[in-house]
Design brief:
The complex is a heterodimer of chains A (595) and B (128).
Chain A: E1 5-10, H1 13-16, H2 20-33, E2 40-45, E3 57-60, E4 64-66, H3 74-84, H4 108-111, H5 129-134, H6 139-147, H7 150-160, H8 172-181, E5 188-193, H9 202-209, H10 211-225, E6 229-235, H11 239-254, E7 270-276, H12 285-292, E8 316-320, H13 321-333, H14 335-339, E9 349-356, E10 362-367, H15 372-379, E11 389-394, E12 400-403, H16 413-418, E13 427-432, H17 437-451, H18 457-474, H19 480-496, H20 500-504, H21 507-515, H22 517-526, E14 540-542, H23 552-556, E15 562-563, E16 571-572, H24 582-586, E17 592-594
Parallel strand pairs in A: 1-2, 5-6, 5-8, 6-7, 9-13
Antiparallel strand pairs in A: 1-3, 3-4, 9-10, 11-12, 11-13, 14-17, 15-16
Helix pairs in contact in A: 2-3, 6-10, 6-13, 7-8, 7-10, 9-10, 9-11, 10-13, 17-18, 18-19, 19-21
Chain B: H1 3-20, E1 27-32, H2 35-39, H3 42-55, E2 61-66, E3 78-81, E4 88-90, H4 95-107, E5 116-118, H5 121-127
Parallel strand pairs in B: 1-2
Antiparallel strand pairs in B: 1-3, 3-4, 4-5
Classes of the chains: A alpha/beta (595), B alpha+beta (128).
Chain lengths: 595, 128
Amino acid sequence: MALNNFCLVCGGTGCESSKADDIFKNLRTAVEAHGLTGQVQVVKTGCFGFCEKGPIVKILPDESFYVEVKPEDAEKIVAEHLVKGRPVKELLYKTADQVTAKTEEDIQFYQKQIRIVLRNCGIINPEDVQEYIARDGYLGLEKVLFEMTPQQVIDEVKKSGLRGRGGAGYPTWLKWTNTSKTPADQRYVICNADEGDPGAYMDRSTLEGDPHSVLEAMTIAGYAQGATKGFIYIRAEYPLAIHRLEVAMKQSREMGLMGKNILGSGFDFDIEIRLGAGAFVCGEETALIQSIEGKRGMPVPKPPFPSVSGLWGKPTSINNVETYANIPVIITKGGDWFASIGTATSKGTKVFALTGAINNSGLVEVPMGTTLREIVYDIGGGIKGGKAFKAVQSGGPSGGVLPAASLDTPIDYESLTKIGSMMGSGGLIVLCESDCIVDVVKFYLDFSVEESCGKCAPCRIGGRKLLNILDKITKGKGTLEDLATMEQIGFAMQRASLCMLGGTTPNPILSTIKFFREEYLEHIEQKKCRAGKCKDLVTYTVIADKCIGCTVCARKCPVNCISGERKAPHVIDQSKCIKCGACFDACKFGAILVS
Amino acid sequence: MTLQELRAMREAGQKAMDRRVGGDKSIEIIVGMGTCGIAAGAKETLDAFVNELNSKDIRNVVIKQVGCMGFCHSEPTVEIRMDGMPDIIYGNVDPETARKIVHSHILEKKLVDKHVFDRPSKDIVKEK
């Protein structure tokens, strides 16, 4: 029998942790049991992006898109869909108005997306180089090695307008030019896969779903800059991505796509993996270089820039995973094609990890210039539980908090910087009315302070000072002067810190003092937290008139501080209350007052 | 690996990959795979389509399996949808007929008269 159906199972970390591997195995077993071996191919792919509804199984050629699949559903999918041709209705995705979406095309999540970086994620088996090659893989490398000079490669990248996707947006061609122009006997290219922002997982998914695209791009970058050696610096916390990279590198070496004399062209290039121990600061390029050299990961002053004196003193260019993933497509389709997507200053697409109080959390890739509103409401499906939108945190601990007024800003490097945030690596965390701005900012600051390497005083001392003041405010002990002090410290850190970790640590504070000043004032003047997140400013009391004495709250209370007779109003012992809010959530009669 | 080998591998893989994702899929072949269809040999018919399209290197066709179309007496039934031809349901399509359909209906845009069974019901409803 000939191969006619394909079962694509998501093999990203998110879906794998929801037993996608069992689904994959069960599908294989079921296909065999129904005698369909040779007619149906079960493939484990990279991330589909729609993580909210994972695990995802897609059946081709029908394009049926099954969501939230469980291992035990495998038998039904095979018996009903593959044998009898009847889609399993209850597993298909239902839109917000309960309409069953038959294929990906019916799902709004995918409508505004353009997939360049994630072009192979959810389509190919990342552990099979032949599938990558069949999707025009290594076509770019072939073109570069046999038809282009290194300068022509850089010119093509320049034409594309590609800028660094790690956050700062430095033009990729310029970085490559600087590195290639520095005279040296050895140059290095590095892939920065030390993705550390809370809530961000774009790079992990790219490496898990399409590792060869990064390997191919690094080889192209090596050729363009006259480097014969590459390093991938990846966090040890990404075991699946590391595994897939190792598999991919082994295949490339065996096939002569990496190593000596690639494809008989005479060009040598090899890549090594270096594992990061999880320090956030090692994502900063000079600290990253120190770490690869085996030293303690701390930034060093620039200049000299790595393009002049980098790894072991040699010219080095460091690009982010997502930047690399764009390169093979730019070479095969041309810089002009790439430059036709996006805005005047920011070309191409950007991958965002959309999380927080949003209906469709997941990985989205949109053209530069898409507005936040389109991402939050059209792709993200709006705020969870029908709550009111409050803000979007963009760019992780280095970014800022954008209010509702920024929803219609087209996203690119310049516009985000202008409104006090930054592109960052691409984490977008959506906040709703039940999130407290001060509390969220405190979370990010806590992270930055924890991750400060301590080498320079502005970051080490300034960050700690800011955190202390924020802590004071959330406890109701803040003063109006504190706001001015925080701004002062923040500006000093921006100017005087050694690296961008310290330079951007105050961003969440500064942007929120600007956009959400009234919430700070509420905490300071009225000692009130409207979202009820700052525990010290909240008291839970029972409204005696409304309490019917059902005892539910008393049973839910984890510290047993609610007492009262059955069918009589209850009382909360304020001295024992830990303000967890369990009673508020449990009460069906609205008898718990938060104030 | 040499450049030629890489190109050959890409060429070989592309056909299968096209069926998985591929660009233009303007022609649809829909094979009834209810119990009746399978009993009458729909699996062999489906296979014949896949192999014939592969050997003729026709890539803009998607083959779908559906449940019983209701013509259990004329199984295997196959519906063809493509531009420039009316939607047609063929009945009693054995592998030989399948190859004929690819050859004349899809490539030459000529009906395989002997096996034309019906037009899809929704067309008939629309006309009335």
